[in-house]
Amino acid sequence: MSDFRPVQMRSPVLTVRRVDAYYAVTVVAPGIAERFRSGQFIAVAVGGEQSSMLSRRAFAIHDVKPDYGGTVEFLFAVRGKGTAWLAERRSRDLLDIVGPLGRPFPLPRDPVNCVLVGGGAGSAPLFPLAHTLRRRGCRVDFVLGAASADRVFSAITARRVAETATFTTDDGSFGVRGRVTDALPQVLEDAPSDVVYACGPMPMLREVTALAARYDIPVQVSVEETMACGTGVCMTCVVPVVGEDGITRMARSCVDGPVFRGERVRFDDVGTIPFDALGAPGWKARGDDPVSAREAG
Amino acid sequence: MSPDLRTRLANVELANPILTAAGCAGAGRELAQFFDIARIGAVVTKSVMLDPRAGLPAPRMAETPSGLLSATGLQGPGIEVFLQRDLPWLLARGGRAVVSIAGGSPAEYAELARRLSDAPGVTMIEVNLSSPNLADQGRHFTDDPAAAARVVHAVRSHTRSDIPVFAKLSPDVPDLVELAVACVQARADGLSMINTVRGMAIDTTTMRPAVAGGVGGVSGPAIRPIAVACVYEVHAALPDVPIIGMGGVRTGTDALEFLLAGASAVAVGTVIFHDPSACVRILREFEEELEERGVRRAADLVGAAHRPMGAQPAR
Ligand SMILES: Cc1cc2nc3c(=O)[nH]c(=O)nc-3n(C[C@H](O)[C@H](O)[C@H](O)COP(=O)(O)OP(=O)(O)OC[C@H]3O[C@@H](n4cnc5c(N)ncnc54)[C@H](O)[C@@H]3O)c2cc1C
Ligand SMILES: Cc1cc2nc3c(=O)[nH]c(=O)nc-3n(C[C@H](O)[C@H](O)[C@H](O)COP(=O)(O)O)c2cc1C
Ligand code: FES
């Protein structure tokens, strides 16, 4: 375990590039690069030493390279003041980064067929996953969606690593007009798929999970819930998740996730405490073995 | 010569005055990935209750200027799991355990105190009084000094005599000194302050409160002056009662400020979310602050801001 512990580093920025609607930041972070497994993320402090912004910003790791002892790349779209600050970083600036964080994508043992579904910036963690799967002899099919052409993520890379790559945009400016979930059934029909991996907004993940269930294919989703620490101490990032024992717990997506088995996430109850969740109001201890009935994590 | 950082909280001596704040460090396990948990004065655990608690729905947190607005609702596994899993883990790593407890009635607090007294290794108990009183329409115990005193008394009566009991106070009360005195008269061995400050933020996009609970608690550097004032006033009124000070501590200088105001130890909360190594960094900075000033014993500075000019501690 200890080898996989996250580290905190002050990492020099190597490059900041514009890629369509996104910024791609590469930092020198050997400890993070060497520990990284697909699906994990970093938590970045924004605003400098005396920042008034106290929560860290979470970004999926998009790529790691061995250069300079190990580099890490993440991509983001400017949303609020934290990402606006990040977009202004220049090479040699230092970033306070913690990572790699979270539970990675579980990998199939055999060379099976995998469909990777991503929405907008949420597609980032699928790229290192695709490379890993290909190295294991898996077939990879991509379905990537976004609001418009400039928000479709790394289309060229997707085409290069995948057997097929299907693109959707809400406005039809690139690929098929519509949503990834409109295109996914066809992809699942065309190739006999063994596993679906998905990341993006909650509603998309819910639909992908429902579709995969219809085709009886296991699905791994990476959820994007608001975070403040990324390290498991603040209890901000909870989602209702059903455990092996059938009990729903408010799981921390930063340490128990962000990757969960799709059918275990209670998408319809996200943003609520389901009445039957462990410790919900009115919930009563049932005399179960307390350790197995424990809170997630 | 490096300064003597030891501090005394009632009959307990800690190696140094830097602690974690309740609810901001779990029971130490997550932070142990970043530093040796045995190096800080103590780990104050997330408030533990009798039964498991799911907490409040998301969104639970909103960022405010130099602070956080949160409403997490004390999500936790309950005392049974805490005693079987979390406490032994912390003790095995050499950590000092200050266990924070919360309940809905004096009887629940008493039961928690009893269970903790039976478990080996508890250094102190901190009584989180910012918890809804089930017998009083969910008003917090801190809203009524008599109710707070009943809880403190119940805890003290059911706690092993060698384990100090600290009462944790909220700043959102009409008369903090009255509340503090009531707790001490109910035999609290010390006081922790402050808990979060009531606040609200509204998301102007959704036009709804930014946290699902509506009103939440503000923490972080934004509330530090409020916290320092609370510690200063209570120390002035009760100079012999040890205080654990907290509220927005970010640097060693901030920790020093709390000592000068009258705190014997300082807890770090929200800043841990920003910097998981904050406690050991602040400890190092605090030590440097003392060295720079030629102060030999940290304990000499406790309450120094109350002394008349020219009566500062010997160097
Ligand atoms: C596991 C994970 C991986 C992510 N990967 C990427 C990525 O690769 N590329 C990318 O562009 N974005 C990613 N995000 C979303 C990214 O974290 C937010 O866009 C970013 O935090 C917004 O910060 P801000 O200061 O610009 O926005 P603000 O709205 O000012 O942020 C305010 C607060 O809300 C939190 N917050 C706001 N939106 C989100 C969100 N969607 N998810 C989590 N916290 C949020 C921020 O951390 C901050 O605490 C990821 C989120 C998670 C949880
Ligand atoms: C997310 C969060 C959870 C908290 N949980 C608890 C708790 O369980 N018990 C408690 O007594 N105080 C709790 N607090 C209050 C802190 O212990 C502390 O008193 C307060 O946040 C002020 O310190 P800070 O500004 O350093 O965070 C919590 C605060 C936050 C932000
Ligand atoms: S983001 Fe803090 S616990 Fe998950």
Automatic annotation (TrEMBL), chain A:
One of its GO terms (molecular function) is metal ion binding. One of its GO terms (biological process) is pyrimidine nucleotide biosynthetic process. The keyword Electron transport applies. Its cofactor is [2Fe-2S] cluster; FAD. Keywords: 2Fe-2S, Electron transport, FAD, Flavoprotein, Iron, Iron-sulfur, Metal-binding, Transport. CDD domains: DHOD_e_trans. [2Fe-2S] cluster binds at C229, C234, C237, C254. InterPro entries: Cyt_c3_hydrogenase_gsu, Dihydroorotate_DH_ele_sf, Dihydroorotate_DH_Fe-S-bd, FAD-bd_FR_type, FNR_nucleotide-bd, PyrK_electron_transfer, Riboflavin_synthase-like_b-brl. FAD binds at G82, T83. Residues 6-107 form the FAD-binding FR-type domain. Belongs to the PyrK family. This is Dihydroorotate dehydrogenase electron transfer subunit. It comes from Marinitenerispora sediminis.
From TrEMBL, chain B:
It is an enzyme of class 1 (oxidoreductase). It is found in: Cytoplasm. It catalyses: (S)-dihydroorotate + A = orotate + AH2. It comes from the Bacteria. Binds 1 FMN per subunit. Its EC number is 1.3.-.-. Its cofactor is FMN. One of its GO terms (biological process) is 'de novo' pyrimidine nucleobase biosynthetic process. Substrate binds at K46, N128, N195, T196. Residues 5-290 form the Dihydroorotate dehydrogenase catalytic domain. Gene3D superfamilies: Aldolase class I (3.20.20.70). FMN binds at K46, S47, N128, K168, I194, G220, G247, G248, G269, T270. Pathway: Pyrimidine metabolism; UMP biosynthesis via de novo pathway. Belongs to the dihydroorotate dehydrogenase family. Type 1 subfamily. This is Dihydroorotate dehydrogenase.
